[in-house]
Amino acid sequence: MMHPMWQGPLVAPGGNRQSPIDIRVRKSVFDPHLKPLTPDYDPRTCSQIWNNGYSFLVEYDDTTDKSTLKGGPLEDNFRLCQFHFHWGESNAWGSEHTVDRRLFPAELHMVHWNSDKYSRFEEAVMEENGLAVIGVFLKIGKRHEGLQKLVDVLPAVRHKDSVVEFTRFDPACLLPTNIDDYWTYAGSLTTPPLTEAVTWIIMKQHIEVSHEQLAVFRSLLFTSAEEEVQKSMVNNFRVQQSLQGRTVRSSFT
Ligand code: SG6
Ligand code: ZN
Q1: Does the ipTM exceed 0.90?
Q2: From 103's CA, which of 20, 66, 159, 190 has a CA 20 to 30 Å away?
Q3: Is the pTM of this model over 0.80?
């Protein structure tokens, strides 16, 4: 079920704010001070798609404040650097977070770093308030027209380490229609370096994609073109971590 590259005993479990977690709806605490989230993305900052051997990353130019995220639980301005997904080999699982133990077939992560306090992603990733990641659950249903543009180019990044130019993709098209309802908690990256740098913002509303679209995700490979035994890129999620006394806040009742 897990990607064998790093989920062995060699990866230290880190501290007391690891991710992902199960969101227990009735245990989350409504916080009336949580503001609406205000993403402001410029599709012209979209640059390329990269199969990094864990997932595929759609990367954005983050040298200026052109694609940003503010509001919600955030005090500072955060810059979009990439988005990626986690998914399963079947539609019965694949998400990293769960809601009352419910698993989704996939989960989108939009990764942003704090450009008010830090000057580069590499610096922010080591800091407590360095990153903000929006999580969106994917459910099987209608074909997602916005996502299809991405699905169409995936065969070009089938192998690990392949990169293709990919421009003018508006990341906002992958957000649910209601972005005002979310859960937020203090957590970590879900892959090494597992740093406890992330303010997680998990959307309550999911988006729909078709089974065929997810099947194209599953046709990607963890392995590079040179490797003899090819491995399908599936089940690229981390196992769940314990809450350790943390509070999950909700923006809605
Ligand atoms: C995926 O998640 C990405 C990788 C990395 C990782 O595996 O391929 O790029 O992302 C920001 C970052 O280092 C961890 O990000 S996550 O915590 O949002 N899942
Ligand atoms: Zn992720």
Answers
A1: yes
A2: 159
A3: yes
For residue 252, report the distance from its CA to the centre of ligand 2, in Å: 24
Answer yes or no: are the C-beta atoms of 209 and 141 closer than 8 Å.
yes
Q: What is the best residue among 56, 109, 185 to mutate for testing ligand 1's pocket, by most ligand atoms within 8 Å of CB?
A: 109
Return the biggest CA–CA distance within the chain: 55
pLDDT digits (tens, 9 = 90+) for 53-92: 999 999 999 999 999 999 999 999 999 999 999 999 999 9
Q: Is the peptide bond before 36 cis (omega within 30 degrees of 0)?
A: no
Nearest CA to ligand 1 atom 12: 189
Q: From the CA of 53, which ligand is nearest?
A: 1
pLDDT tops 90 at residue 13: no
* C-alpha count within 13 angstroms, C-beta hemisphere, residue 106: 27
Cα angle: 24, vertex 205, 100; to 5 degrees = 20
